[in-house]
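Lab notebook, page 48
Experiment: co-folding of the full assembly
Goal: obtain a model of how the components sit together before planning crosslinking
Operator: M.T.
Materials (sequences as entered):
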Amino acid sequence: MNHPSQLAAPIPISRRRDRRSDLVDAAIKLFAERTYAATPVPLVAAEAGVGTGTLYRYFPSKEALGNAAFQRAKGRFLEGVAAIGGEYADPRELFSAWWGALFRFAAEHPDEFAFLEHQQHAGYLDAESHALAAQVDEAAAAVLRDAQANGEVRDGDPTLLVALVFGAFIGIDRQARAGLLALDDHTRAATEPIVWALLRKDHA
Amino acid sequence: MNHPSQLAAPIPISRRRDRRSDLVDAAIKLFAERTYAATPVPLVAAEAGVGTGTLYRYFPSKEALGNAAFQRAKGRFLEGVAAIGGEYADPRELFSAWWGALFRFAAEHPDEFAFLEHQQHAGYLDAESHALAAQVDEAAAAVLRDAQANGEVRDGDPTLLVALVFGAFIGIDRQARAGLLALDDHTRAATEPIVWALLRKDHA
Amino acid sequence: MNHPSQLAAPIPISRRRDRRSDLVDAAIKLFAERTYAATPVPLVAAEAGVGTGTLYRYFPSKEALGNAAFQRAKGRFLEGVAAIGGEYADPRELFSAWWGALFRFAAEHPDEFAFLEHQQHAGYLDAESHALAAQVDEAAAAVLRDAQANGEVRDGDPTLLVALVFGAFIGIDRQARAGLLALDDHTRAATEPIVWALLRKDHA
Amino acid sequence: MNHPSQLAAPIPISRRRDRRSDLVDAAIKLFAERTYAATPVPLVAAEAGVGTGTLYRYFPSKEALGNAAFQRAKGRFLEGVAAIGGEYADPRELFSAWWGALFRFAAEHPDEFAFLEHQQHAGYLDAESHALAAQVDEAAAAVLRDAQANGEVRDGDPTLLVALVFGAFIGIDRQARAGLLALDDHTRAATEPIVWALLRKDHA
DNA sequence: GATGAATGAGGGTTCATTCAT
DNA sequence: AATGAATGAACCCTCATTCAT
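Observation: model returned without errors.
Model output:
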């Protein structure tokens, strides 16, 4: 008998990682640059280095591709940022880690971040995408709830506080995208205490 | 006997306000809901209650319409929010007025606000639109600079502080758009001190 | 008492000749420059100095305007060129007069001539236009038939001979339109004997 | 048993000649019949037996298609007619060959000829098209210059003489298109000496 | 499985024609 | 009677999707 793997197929062995993954990355990049609606599907395929028809072997439609892109970006954000939590005892340290993770994510995955920022309520997002978005929101809220329980963080709706903090970061990101500042350690260090003032309980 | 002025003309009275203005409003509404790229021109015309061809009597192209919409929204924002300033001696009061204006604007002009939030770096914006956007940014920065000079507001790049505050409001607006809160007096009152903590000089 | 002309009506009194005539002239000019199909009706109205709606008070459709233009141009050609005839006893002189008339017409009415040259078999021409075209052809053929009867002109289908001579002039006109020569007396004098060679009976 | 070659592939064999070529031919035919401006692009595609979108895979715009059509027609004319020359020692024979080629071209390529006749100064023609047109004119003028040098042909601007001869043929072609005569050997033989009279040096 | 040529519905825009003023 | 704003059919062109190779 022979190894099935040798006979059954010419074994490209995951050519360049993964076709599907390449396509999603290409989509995120182009959707971030040009908007979902203004990006032709063939351009995504070309960016990923495959033929147009090939893309449709991995995604049944442009909408499906858009959702895959959204879910990939949101998923990475969840892993990289929103899920930070448990391991920190001190709320101040926790926030520091969270804020740092936000900077790191936006700096290392600028396309993912820009894409997420703009497709907030895009018409093509399906239930799964919305669910994932809700999961991200909840994860962040949970972290904050813990910090509130710990006592050092301001009272109030944790969802609202997360929205304020995350919104403030969006403001920073837009400044960065406009070239007015860099998403580096300096900016992170300068902004961290400012935004922390927003979270920490007012002193008597 | 009758007034000649009443007889002579069948009283046109600015046919339902103004065609051009209606078209811009329709564009802002639809662009906010569906994105500029994903909104067909005929849909804008229909929303304004006119035929497709009529739109092109007022705007030479979809791009021109997009810029008019952007400039109308930004202009209203400038009038309603960014221009607030001089009349307030106390920085705390000034912020209170500014934050209140932001709430009022987002509540009364939700489409304008949503549109502006999304068209941040749209490819179709022309020099005039960019100039107006810069003017708005500068007006807000100027207000903040005054407050800093006055002493009660945190030091640092006023542009960055404005970005943080405005970003925080974007966070609130998104919560509101998701139905998680209302842009009412209660929310305004609850968030104002939180965001003020972001601006005011740290004690001690 | 007052002059009726002052009271009864503003009396434009055939303002600038005749509206209809102005419109036809404007149409000929623009159709010659830009082609019938590529000329917007409002442009014709503007060229004639009237509103678009006014044009439709004189012509029920663009086609009707096109036919009026064709008939005006052909009619003028008939008067100015094709009808020349009877008064000349000598065929050589007759040809000279005819050739001169052709030059004069093309020089004085360049738009009419260019328009006629291009709309030869345009799809919008109606029966009346075709009939007038046929009348022009027949008038020219009749002249030539006379000359043949007189003896000095080559035998053969007069229609064909007319086509050759008129075609030769089209060649000249195109050169002129390209700026390679002028439709002046010099060119007329230089070409007349050449084209006459085409008509005159070969010497034994 | 069957040939594997018949089974393996469904015999592609250059799908009906060439798509691009078919499209140009369809364009020439329709532009000749209906004018460039009055011919919708989808009609050209349908005439070529392809979908509208397909046409745009071969030509970036209607203008590009128009230029390709013009260049194809002019190019064929150059090959078939204007380039005739060198191999004839006797000017009379040369003219005979040239005139015959003209008849053959107009008879075999009636659409090309009609199209060229009408697009003389069309606004959509690009530099390349104009250059080709100039090349054709020059080729014809060169032939005539040779014949003049040889002595048997009338003196004068060769460009003008070519224009006269070619114009005369246009006259014939219009008669033919109107159904008044045929572009056959009989007409050719009948007209050749007439037009030759236009070219040959007058006898003492 | 991969490709990209082919397609036609749909998007931006123009324009012949109408009609309220 | 004159106007020009209004209209929608039709035009040029793009692009999501399919399918023969």
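Interpretation: Confidence is low (pLDDT under 50) at residues 1-14 of chain A.
Next step: discuss with group before ordering constructs.
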